UniProtKB/TrEMBL annotation:
This is Carbohydrate ABC transporter permease. GO terms for biological process: transmembrane transport. SUPFAM superfamilies: MetI-like (SSF161098). Keywords: Cell membrane, Membrane, Transmembrane, Transmembrane helix, Transport. CDD domains: TM_PBP2. The chain crosses the membrane at residues 65-89, 96-117, 129-150, 171-196, 230-251. InterPro entries: MetI-like (IPR000515), MetI-like_sf (IPR035906). One of its GO terms (cellular component) is plasma membrane. Belongs to the binding-protein-dependent transport system permease family. It is found in: Cell membrane. Gene3D superfamilies: MetI-like (1.10.3720.10). The keyword Transit peptide does not apply.
Length: 265
C-alpha cells in the first residue's frame, strides 16, 4: 500500500512539474524569467495585466468560451438524439449506420483538415464563428456514451411511456434527459477540454485577430511579447488554464459517475 501511494505521489508530482514551473515564471520579472531561477517573484499581477490588456488574451478567451459553449451544447443535443434513435427506433441498416458513426472516431481532425478547409472555404465559413463551431458539433464519443447508457434503461419504462401515449420528443425531454445528467456532465468535461485546447483547426480557419482562439494566441505571444518576456507568456498560459480547470472541478463527480453508468450491459 505504501509503495502504491509513493508511486502515485511521484507520478502526480511529475505531472505537476510543468504547471508549477509556469506558475513560478509567471511571477517573475523580465530578467528572472529568462534565467534558470526558480524563485517566485512579485510581478504576477503586472504580468497578468499586461497579457490581458496589451496582448488581448481576454478577447481570445471570450472567443474560446463562446465556441466551447456552442460546440458542447450542440454535441450534447445531437448525441442525445442520435443515441436515442439507435436504441429506441428500428430502421434499415441500423448496425451499419452505427458502425459508420464509430468509424469517425478513427478519423482525427489532422487527417481531414485539408478537405475540411476546402469545404469551409467553399461555404464561406472561414473567419467566422460558424467555421469554428459546425465542423465539431457532432460527436461519435457522445453517441456511444449515451447509447450505452440508454441500453441500461428498463424496457418496462419505455413500454409504459408508449402505453401512455408519450411522444418520442417528450420521452426524450421528460425521461431520458433527467436520467442522463451524469452522462451529460461527463461529455461536457470531455468537450470543454477538447475544444479549449484546439490549435490546428483554429490556426487554419481563422486569420482575423478578433476571432482568434486562445491556444493560437498563446503561440502568437512568442512572436509579439517584448524581449520574450517569459513571465508575461507564462502568465497567459496560467490564466488560460483556469476555465477548463473550474469546469472539471465542478463536474468531476458527474464525470466519474457518467463513465461508470455508460458501461456495457
Amino acid at each position: 500500500m505504501i509503495a502504491t501511494h509513493a508511486i502515485l505521489a511521484t507520478a502526480t508530482f511529475l505531472f505537476m512539474v510543468p504547471i508549477l514551473y509556469a506558475m513560478i515564471k509567471a511571477t517573475q520579472n523580465l530578467g528572472a524569467s529568462v534565467s534558470t531561477s526558480l524563485v517566485p517573484g512579485t510581478d504576477l499581477i503586472a504580468n497578468a495585466t499586461t497579457v490581458w490588456e496589451r496582448y488581448g488574451i481576454g478577447r481570445m478567451m471570450t472567443n474560446t468560451l463562446f465556441v466551447t459553449a456552442m460546440v458542447t451544447l450542440g454535441k450534447t443535443i445531437l448525441a442525445l438524439c442520435s443515441a436515442a434513435a439507435f436504441v429506441f427506433f428500428r430502421f434499415r441498416l441500423q448496425g451499419l449506420w452505427f458502425a459508420l458513426v464509430l468509424f469517425t472516431l478513427m478519423m482525427p481532425t489532422e487527417v481531414l483538415i485539408r478537405a475540411l478547409y476546402d469545404l469551409a472555404g467553399s461555404m464561406q465559413m472561414l473567419n467566422t464563428y460558424q467555421g469554428l463551431i459546425l465542423p465539431f458539433i457532432a460527436s461519435a464519443t457522445g453517441t456511444l456514451l449515451f447509447r450505452q447508457h440508454f441500453l441500461r434503461i428498463p424496457r418496462e419504462l419505455v413500454e409504459a411511456a408508449q402505453v401512455d401515449g408519450v411522444r418520442p420528443f417528450r420521452f426524450l425531454v421528460s425521461f431520458l434527459v433527467p436520467l442522463s445528467w451524469n452522462i451529460i456532465g461527463a461529455l461536457a468535461v470531455i468537450d470543454v477540454i477538447y475544444v479549449w485546447n484546439m490549435y490546428l483547426w483554429p490556426r487554419w480557419a481563422v486569420s482575423e485577430p478578433d476571432l482568434m482562439m486562445v491556444q493560437v494566441g498563446l503561440v502568437r505571444l512568442l512572436d509579439v511579447v517584448d524581449g520574450n518576456h517569459w513571465g508575461v507568456i507564462m502568465a497567459g498560459a496560467v490564466i488560460t488554464m483556469i476555465p477548463p480547470l473550474i469546469i472539471f472541478m465542478l463536474l468531476q463527480e458527474r464525470f466519474v459517475r457518467g463513465f461508470a453508468m455508460s458501461g456495457t450491459k
